[in-house]
Amino acid sequence: MRVLGIESSCDETGVAVYDTAFGGAAGLRAHEVYSQIDLHAAYGGVVPELASRDHVRKLLPLVRETLREAGLSTTELDGVAYTAGPGLVGALMVGAGFARALAFALEIPAVAVHHMEGHLLAPLMEDDPPEPPFVALLVSGGHTQLVHVARIGDYRLLGETLDDAAGEAFDKTAKLMGLPYPGGPQLAKLAGIGRPGLFKFSRPMVDRPGLDFSFSGLKTQVLLAWRGSDQSDQTRADIALAFEEAVVDTLRIKCERALDAAGCDTLVVAGGVGANRKLREQLQTMAAKRGGRVCFPRPELCTDNGAMIAFAGALRLQAGESVDAQVKVRPRWDMAELPTLDTVTGSHA
């Protein structure tokens, strides 16, 4: 089954083709992502109306480019998958409307995909994919969640952020220290030249039971440290390192607790912050000490992309799921509402 995937939940336009005949990493025939970072930089954050308009401009050319890269025509597609939520309603409507119209014209099925399920399943596209049950850390600019995955579609929330997501905390902390939008990746890069031990920030909520997160207080600690410093470039790097260490340590501690609580040895990490080098190193070390494993998607599939939507959609299309001709999106959507799939037979459980 050849599935076209379309991602348009926020400020990336992602398109991909996944072919289930090959499976694994080989099944990803082509994928392209267009980022709107330059468009929104002047505003210091994503402007929803501008995001929607840019998806309208970029989606069709990107679909054509992706199909050309895959060596396919639209008539060779067997299904279309699109992000139906959660996300910005206008941006979601652009992708959903395009996908539904294309599927209708081609007389092939279309399926609505949950954005976070796409992230969660992205590591399963790699060679030697993990098998459920496992614990997933979904960590991005909009979400920080720990989820127990019994089967595909059978998700139980173990813990989540009570305020800022980890990626959001990176971006806001960078902005506090004068870094341009989006500051999170720049903050992580600066941390690489920071001097360890000069600043120390708390590891929030690790001194109490439970698996929830809170990162908003770290921003206040950084702001106070920055205001009381000489505000030199080196000091900015030193604070960036201390902040990154605090976030990464917190995520590692909570992941280990979640594995213990779920009785699992496998951790799956997905989302934009999953590309962070220090986080990957710490989680790999933690997993090795436990005799388990940690699985990541390749770095380019950590951020929003069409490949994860094509893959998740292919699994659900194979299970017989599809949507009717109405264009529907869900800006808020609980993953617990998703139907469970039997990963062996590909049918509804």
TrEMBL record:
GO terms for molecular function: tRNA N(6)-L-threonylcarbamoyladenine synthase activity. It catalyses: L-threonylcarbamoyladenylate + adenosine(37) in tRNA = N(6)-L-threonylcarbamoyladenosine(37) in tRNA + AMP + H(+). Its EC number is 2.3.1.234. It comes from the Bacteria. Keywords: Acyltransferase, Cytoplasm, Iron, Metal-binding, Transferase, tRNA processing. Residues 28-311 form the Gcp-like domain. Its main location: cytoplasm. InterPro entries: ATPase_NBD, Gcp-like_dom, KAE1/TsaD, TsaD. Belongs to the KAE1 / TsaD family. Required for the formation of a threonylcarbamoyl group on adenosine at position 37 (t(6)A37) in tRNAs that read codons beginning with adenine. Is involved in the transfer of the threonylcarbamoyl moiety of threonylcarbamoyl-AMP (TC-AMP) to the N6 group of A37, together with TsaE and TsaB. TsaD likely plays a direct catalytic role in this reaction. This is tRNA N6-adenosine threonylcarbamoyltransferase.
